[in-house]
Amino acid sequence: MTTEASAALAGPLPGGRWQAAGSRAWPVAVVVAVGLLVWYAAAVWLNAPRVIERLDGLGQPWGAPELVAAAWSMERPVMPAPHQIALDWWGSVFGNAIDSPRSLVFHAGVTLSATLLGFVFGMLLGVALAVGVVSSRVLDRGLLPWVIASQTIPILAIAPMVVVVLGSLGYPPLISKAVISMYLCFFPVTIGMVKGLRSPETLQLDLLRTYSATPSQTLRKLRLPAALPFLFASARVAIATSLVGAIVGELPTGAAAGLGARLLSGSYFGQTIQIWSALLMAALLGVTLVAAVGVLERLVGRWMGSAPAAPGRGR
Amino acid sequence: MSPPAESLAVQAQDLSLVFQTADAPVTALDRINLSIARGEFVSFIGPSGCGKTTLMRVIADLERATAGRISVNGVSPQQARQARAYGYVFQAAALYPWRNVLNNVMLPLEIIGLPAAERRARAERQLELVGLEGFERKFPWQLSGGMQQRVSIARALACEPDMLLMDEPFGALDEITRDHLNEQLLRLWERTGKTVIFVTHSISEAVFLSNRIVVMSPRPGRILELIDNDLPPGRTLDVRETPAFAAVAHRVRVALRAGHSYDD
Amino acid sequence: MMPRPLVMFAALLLVGGMGQPGGPSGLLALLGIGGVLLCLRAWPAPALAGIGLAALALMAWAMLLALSVPGPRGADANGLWLALGGWAIFVWCVLDRLALLQRPRPLGLLAPALLGAALLFAWEVLVVGWEVPRVLLPAPHAVGDALAARWHVLWPDFRQTAVAVLAGWAIGSGAGLAVALLADRVDFLRRGLLPLAGLAGAVPIVGIAPIMVMWFGFDWQSKAAVAAVVTFFPMLVNTLAGLAAVDTMQRDLMRTYAAGHGATLMKLRMPSALPFVFNALKINSTLALISAIVAEFFGSPIVGLGFRISAEVARMNVDVVWAAITLAALAGSAFYGLIALVERAFTFWHPSYRSS
Q1: Would you say A286 and A243 are in contact if contact means Cβ atoms under 8 Å apart?
Q2: Residue of chain B nearest C260, judged by CA positions
Q3: Are residues B12 and B79 in the same domain?
Q4: CB atoms inside a 10 Å sphere around CB B183
Q5: What pLDDT was estimated at residue A2?
Q6: Domain at A104-303: CATH architecture
Q7: What integer pLDDT is reported at residue B2 of this predicted model?
Q8: B217 and B175 co-located in one domain
C-alpha cells in the first residue's frame, strides 16, 4: 500500500545522478531540520511546568536561558530533547556488552529473532495459500473471501492469548511471538501472491497450452517467476508488520527481553528517555529490515534480468 | 500583401523550440514561418516526431517557444488562452468518468462561471450540433469510442471559441467511424465558419478535410511545403475517388518523401 | 464434477462411523448415503448444492446430538472421527458445486459461508470431542455463552474503544488529507515529506502508545492519539498518489480552459483521487482499531476491549477473551463494510466496479 503509492509518485529528474540524488535529499533535509527545531521548542513548552517548579524551589533568580537549559536536560522529562534520546541510545548500544540486558542491541536481537522467524513462516504460509487459491476453485471461492475479511479483524488483539496459551503449553516466548508475527504477515503475502500468480497475460497462458503444459508446469515456469515482483512488494509490508507483531507479543506477559518489553518497563517506571530510545531502536530496526528486503529484491531482479520499473502503482 | 496581425488567426515568425533533455538538446521546431487566416481549415501532416503536435501545443500555450515570435488572434498565446480563444480536442476523449455526457460538456462553462441555466442551454446546443441529443444522461463508458470523441468535440465548442485545435482526434477509431466523423466535422466547419487546425498522420484525411495542408518533417521539425487544396467546398466522401483528390494527395506524398529521411 | 472415488470414500467413512463407539446414530448414515448418492447424479449445480447443503446440515445436527450425550471421548470415539472425516470430504464436494454459482449475487456468498460454517462446526466437534481444556481453546458455544453472559461488561468496553477508534481515525485521516493538499500545493513540502512518510510505514508506530498515555492520560484520548498518528501516514501517501495519478491529457485540458489551481483541484484532481482516498480510509479503519486496542494493552482505565483482553488473559478466562475478540472482529468488519458501501456511492464510475 504505502510503498506502491510512493513508487507512483517518483518521477525522472534532469541532470546527473548525484545532482538528482542531491535535489531529492535537500527537501527531506529541510523538513527534518524544521522538525527538529519544532521538537526542541515543544520540549521546552511541555517540560516548562515541572522545570519552573524546580527552579522556583531553588530560590535563585532565573531567566529564559536557565529555563531552556533545564528543560533540555531533565531526568524524567515529559518530552525529552532529541540529543538526550540520541545520547541514551548511543550509551545503551555502545556502552554495554551485547548480551547485557542493559543493551538495546540485546533487546533488538530478541525482537529481531521473533520477527524473522514469524516473517519466514508468514511468507511460507502466504505463498502456500496463494498457490492453493489459484489452483483450486473451491479455495478461491470459499477461502479467499475469508482471507480478505481477516484484514478487517484486529488480529493483534489475539496476541495476549496466543502468548499465554502457548506459554502454558510449554513453548518458549520466541515461538508465540513468531506465531503472532506469522498471523499478521501472511495476509499481504497471500493477496500479493494471488495477484502475482494471476498476472501473466492470456497470450502467455495460451502459449503454454499449445505446449500441453500441465498446471504444475505452468505454475513453476510462468506463474511463480511472474509473481516474484509482487512477492517482494508484499514482503516489504510483511516484514514491517512482522516487527509490530513481535513487539506487541512481548507486551502481555511482561516479558523481560525485547524492545516491546523495554517500552513496557519504561512506561511502568516513568523512564521517558528509555521509552523514546527503545522506539528509536525499533524504528531503525524497521527501516533496516525493509531496506534489506529492497536490496534482496534488487539482487534477485538482477539475477533474473528484470527491468528496473516496479509493478502495480496506486490502485 | 500581408494582412494585419489582428485579422490572422495565427502568425508565426521564425518560431523555434529546443527541448533540453538529459542526453542532448532536441530541436522540435526549427524556424517555423506560418500564417493562418480566420476561417481556414488547416492540416498539419508529417511522420512522428516532426513537431506538428508541438507546434499546435505552442499555439495553445501548452508549450513555450525558445525563439521567434507567435501571435494568436493578434495577441500572445498566453493571452489567447486566458481569453479562451480556442477549444482543444485531444487524441483520446479525456472525458470525466464521474460525470455524465451533459455535465462533461458543461465543464468549461462551469470554470468560466456561467449561470446554470445558460450552461445547460449551451451544452445542449453543442450536443445537438454533434448529433448526440438524447445522450445527455449517459456516462462515458456507456458510449462507443466515436461517440465519446464527439462529446469531446462538443465540449471544445462549449465556450464558442473562434478556433478549434484538434490533435489526431480520430486516430484511435476504426476507419468506418473515422470516415463518418470526418464528414460530420466538415459539415460542422461549414456551418460555424471557425478556424480549425487539425493534426493528422493520414494523407487522405488531410486532403479531404482541409483547404490548406502544412507538410512537416522531423529532426529538426520544419515546414517542408504549404499546399493549397483547391478541391471545391461542400465535399462528400465520394470526392476521394476523383482524380483531383488523387493529384493533391500525390503532391502531399511527394513532399513528405522529399523531406523525410529513411536512413534513421 | 465430483470425483466418484472420493464420494464413495466419504460414504464409506460415514457408514463406518455409524457402527463405532461414540458415532452418531443410524439417522446419520441414512442421510449420508442418501445425500452422497444424489450427488453422484448429474443434476444442475443449484439443485445439487441445495440438496447437499440440506444433507450436510442434518448430518451435522446428528453429530452434535451424539456429542450432547455422555459417551466415549477423545481417541475412544472412533465413530465420531470417522463420521467427521467423511463429512469433511462431503463438504469439499458440495463446495465444489457451490463454487460454480455466481449469479444472482447473494448465491455467490454461499461458498465462503459454507466454509466458514463448516470450520466453526469442526471447531466445536473437535474441542468437545477431544475434551480440550477450556483455558486452551473454548468451543464456539462457550464463546457465545460468555458473550451473552458478560455483555453488561463487554458493551461499555466496546463503547470506550469505539470512541477512541472513531476519533483517532477521523483526526488522523483528516490531518493526512489536509497535509496532502498542502503538500500538493507546495512542491518542496511534498518532496520533503513523501520519503519520510514512506519510511514511517516501516516504523512500528504503535510503540508510541506509552508516550501518548503519559501526555494524554489513561482515558480514551491517548488511544485516539495513537490511532490518529498511525492513520495519518497511509492517508497522506495515498492522497498524494491519487492527486498525482491524473492523466497529463486531463491536466492539459484544464490549462486550455485557463482554470486556476483551485478549479483544477476541485473539478479534476480530487474526484480522480477519490478511489485512492477511500482505499486509505479502509486501510485506516483496520489500523485505527488495532492501534486503539494495542494502546490499551499499555495501560487503560478499567474499560476498553484491549484492557478486557489483557486482564482476562491474566485471569485465564479465555472464553471471555474470545468473546471480546469476536466483538472486535464484528465491529471491525462492519466499519470496513460501511466505508466500502460509501465508497461505492462516490466512486461508482471507477473501472473496478464494472464487471468485465
Answers
A1: yes
A2: B111
A3: yes
A4: 15
A5: 42
A6: Orthogonal Bundle (1.10)
A7: 53
A8: yes
Give how far B22 is from chain A: nearest CA, Å: 6
CB-based contacts of C162, cutoff 8 Å, min separation 6: C331
Out of C204, C214, C283, the one facing A282 most closely (by C-beta) is: C204
Encode pLDDT of B122-172 as tens digits. 999 999 989 898 999 999 989 999 999 999 999 999 988 999 999 999 988
Q: Which pairs from A86-89 meet CB under 8 Å and 24+ separation?
A: A86/A280, A88/A273, A88/A274, A88/A276, A88/A277, A89/A277, A89/A280, A89/A281
pLDDT category at A7 given cuts 50, 70, 90 is very low
Task: Compare all CA atoms of chain A with the CA of B21 and give the residue at the minimum distance.
Answer: A14
C257: chain B residues, CB-CB within 8 Å: 84, 107-108, 111-112, 159
Q: What are the boundaries of each domain within chain A? A: 16-78, 104-303
Q: Does residue C161 contact residue C304 with C-beta atoms inside 8 Å?
A: yes
8 Å CB contact of B20 and A14: yes
Nearest CA in chain B to C348: B98
Give domain status of residue B101, yes or no: yes
Task: Flag if B88 and C263 touch (Cβ within 8 Å).
Answer: no
Chain A nearest C-alpha distance from C151 (Å): 18
- Give CA–CA dist A141/A283, Å, rounded: 39
Separation between Cα atoms, residue C25 and residue B58, nearest integer Å: 87
**With pLDDT > 90 as the criterion, what percentage of chain C qualifies?**
17
Contact at CB, B20 and A15, closer than 8 angstroms: no
C-alpha cell at C201: 510505514
Q: Considering the domain boundaries, does residue B200 fall inside one?
A: yes
> Cα distance from A94 to chain B (closest Cα, Å)?
46
Kindly state whether residue B103 falls inside one of the protein's structural domains: yes
pLDDT (tens digit per residue) in C123-178? 888 888 888 887 778 888 888 888 899 899 899 999 999 999 999 999 999 999 99
Q: Domain residues for B135?
A: 95-160
Distance CA A50, CA A48 (A): 6
Domain count, chain B: 2
Across the interface, whether the CB atoms of B97 and C258 are under 8 A apart is answered no
Residue C239 has pLDDT above 80, yes or no: yes
Cell numbers standing for residue B76? 500572445
| Burial classification of residue B48, based on how many CB atoms lie within 10 Å of its CB (0-12 exposed, 13-18 middle, 19 or more buried) | exposed
B34 and B123: one domain? no
- Is the CB of C275 less than 8 angstroms away from the CB of A263? no
B 222-241 → C contacts, CB under 8 A? none
* Domain membership flag for residue B264: no
The residue type of C8 is M
- The mean pLDDT value for B38-48 works out to 92
Instruction: Tell me the three cell numbers of residue C204.
Output: 512500528
Render pLDDT for B69-113 as a digit per residue (tens, 0 to 9).
999 999 999 899 888 888 999 888 888 888 899 999 998 888 888
ipTM score assigned to the predicted complex:
0.78
Q: Is B22 on the interface with A (CB under 8 A)?
A: yes
| Calpha distance C241→C17 (Å, rounded) | 59
Whichever domain contains B219, its CATH number is: 3.40.50.300
Cell 510483511, residue located: A238
Q: Which three cell numbers stand for residue A276?
A: 523514546
Query: Exposure pattern of A20-45 as b/e (b: 16+ CB <10 Å)?
Result: eeeeeeebbeebeeeeeeeebeebbe
Q: Which CATH class is domain C148-349?
A: mainly alpha
Q: Kindly state whether residues B154 and B179 are assigned to the same domain.
A: no
Q: Which of B126, B160, B194 is the last residue of a domain?
A: B160
Model confidence pLDDT, tens digit, residues C44-91: 777 777 777 888 887 888 788 777 777 777 777 777 888 888 888 888
Shared domain check, B187 and B107: no
d(CA A90, CA A106): 14
